[in-house]
Amino acid sequence: MKLIAYDCRSDELTYFKKFAPQYGVDLILSEEDPAPETVSAAEGCSCISMITTPMTRDLLQKYYDAGVRFISTRSIGYDHIDIRAAKEIGMHIGNVSYTPNSVADYTLMLALMATRKIKQIVLRSEAQDFSLSGVQGAELHNLTVGVIGTGRIGRLVAQRFAAFGCRVVAYDLYENKELKDIVEYMPLDRLFAESDLITLHMPATKENHHMINAAAIASMKDGVYLINTARGSLVDTQALLDGVESGKVGGAALDVIENETGLYYNDLKNEILVNRERAVLKSYPNVIVMPHTAFYTDQAVSDMVEHSIESCLLFTQGKKNPWEIA
To answer: At what angle do helices 298-316 and 10-22 cross, to 10 degrees?
Structure first.
């Protein structure tokens, strides 16, 4: 199979060079994004591998016309791809899976940073302000933690918080039997009302767009902590800004935000970023904004590359593909 990997980062090279010969793949590596100008690079490829470049209807059509029939995104999320257009065109789409420990560990780290007010402590220490006023933290075992979404990642997150002695409550359309001994499932409105800390672990869908909105925040405990390592679109950013400014939200730690496409994974230190809400969020002493790096471990990158190659192979061989989503 001939395969082109777009958006190939330097950290992925080792794994592409390892797995391509292992799976017998004729591999083309490209640092460029999928684009009308780079479609020709996929000549002879029925599949392409890419990351988070927006795949619009027009771009999908151009790749289809060039002979591409399957696109594998080296990510769990696929909201950057116009799935409806892909189905109408006849383009098949797949994502990948990777070790859920990467995001689960990161979630716990962000929860500790938020509840122990690490941002304030670090900023003040840089200015040699070593006073204690305003930086008293909370201990996890005293908190009720609400986990929204208990799939592969959410399950591990729930187990980690339970190990810290937290009361863990959860909401999911499909309850995870593995968690019944340590988690109390409940309706979403009750979870909002009872949780001291809420962590999100759901994909981005039309149904849960802005599920954390003004009404949801109003129903939460005063001083609630919000952790988001899932998808930026789950949170209505303006509602979160209002919640932080009113004091309703006591702290937030966000690895993902709305409208982050085109920002992360690039060196933009000399650029003016067109995302005012991000700038405002970063200005708050009790809000941590990270650049979508919860997934980023050596094992996760290895998994992403290997599973993308495997997925393309399964498609070309007409075999059952666990990563095919459309």
So the answer is: 40
Residue 217 shares a structural domain with residue 272: yes
Q: Which of 231, 258, 306, 307 is catalytic?
A: 231
State yes or no: pLDDT of 52 exceeds 90.
Answer: no
Among this protein's residues, is 306 annotated catalytic? no
Please report the pLDDT score of residue 86 as a whole number. Answer: 98
DSSP characters for 1-15? -EEEE-S--HHHHHH
Q: Using a cut of 0.70, tell me whether the model's pTM lies above it.
A: yes
Q: What is the CATH number of the domain that holds 156?
A: 3.40.50.720
Average pLDDT estimate for 104-130:
97
Say whether both 156 and 194 belong to one domain: yes
Q: Can 207 be counted among the known catalytic residues?
A: no
Does 324 participate in catalysis according to the annotation? no
Co-location of 109 and 188 in the same domain:
yes
Residue 112 lies in a domain: yes
Q: How many domains does the chain have?
A: 2
Domain ranges, residue 17: 2-98+298-316
**Sheet strands side by side (includes 2-5):** 26-29, 2-5, 47-50, 70-73, 92-94
Nearest to 276 by CA among 245, 231, 238, 239: 238
pLDDT grade for 185, boundaries at 50, 70 and 90: very high
Residues in CB range of 89: below 8 A, 6 or more apart: 57, 60, 61, 64
- By C-alpha distance, which of 27, 36, 95, 31 is closest to 60? 36
Q: Which of 74, 124, 201, 292 is catalytic?
A: 292
Catalytic residue among 92, 124, 167, 260: 260
- Read off the pLDDT band of 261 (50, 70, 90): confident
